[in-house]
Specification:
The complex is a heterodimer of chains A (269) and B (68). In chain A, α7 links the parallel β7 (167-172) and β8. Chain A has a single domain, classed as 3-Layer(aba) Sandwich (Rossmann fold). Chain A has ten helices and ten strands. With 269 residues, chain A is α/β, with parallel strands linked by helices. In chain A, the strands form two sheets. Chain A has an eight-stranded mixed sheet, with helices on both faces. Chain A has a two-stranded antiparallel sheet with strand order 5-6. Chain B is globular. Classes of the chains: A alpha/beta (269), B alpha+beta (68).
Amino acid sequence: MNSLLEKYIKKESLPYIFCPGCGNGIVLNAMIYAIEALGIKDDTACVSGIGCSSWIPPYLNMDVMHTIHGRAIAFAEGLKLSQPDKNIIVFTGDGDCLAIGGNHLLHAAKRNINITVIMINNYIYGMTGGQKSPTTPIDAKTKTSPYGAIDNPIDGCGVAMSAGATFCSRWTTGHPNQLKKAIQEGIAHNGFSFIEVLSQCPVQAGKSIFKERDPWKIIQYIRKNSTITSVWEDEYKEDKIRLGNFKKETDKREYCEKIITLKKRMKQE
Amino acid sequence: MNISIDDNYCKGCEICINACPKDVFAISQKRNKYGTLIPCVAEKENCIACKLCEIMCPDGCINVETEV
């Protein structure tokens, strides 16, 4: 086994529950490498909701919370407010974050609270059997859209940035080193960080969206259909998915700091 | 240089075989306890220790040790 992972993973719970070739393991590796580079293992807690991607934190040899569906960000906000000196990382999926938990995402981004949200987008509800999710591409045939999806997918990064997230980036599982650096920057950033990872689901999305069961071919397909850019244009016309570190804003005040100053003011009055 | 693959946790997704830029890994005829064909280290001398296989392995099976 990987010698670095031995330090971070509960060996008694291995092997992972994930299907062969699942992208969640790559995101977990990138996160572990980022935490190792920052040296913050004992000052970090992970929170997750419900879904395939939310099974990442329970394997970690750290403080983790596996919470209710869609409310991972809400739990993380509470944890952060009670312990403002600790780093909180949220693992969430496209359904967990953009469908049932969409409201929590908007409000956490609006508050600019210092948590890092890693949203793993596999384009489908994988755990429940392959239903259409908010990010399923148009015309994709899934269990709940047998004639092809007719509505447009949600762009997670666009939603988070328009709500006020101060750090935003998007990578795929085919860019593990860039993803590691983005997670590292997101944890170090003082404010709400949103990192979207485009991941492969060879079982459910492979069957209904990509028509391809080989995980490597799906990684290559996503890589080919994306372009790396550092500027986010609102009027984007091309078909390709944009990847990169889009936004880093440092002049906006953080929510915990605001609460602390409010408390001081209330005591004085 | 020492490259090891953990048979206990490998699920045979073959990402490592494709991800390696120097084609160090190859599929073997050996099966692990789950019955999946696991990869083997075929051309160890080609390895440049980029450690892409380590971070790309979804099950954390590969370990690349470089001599100091």
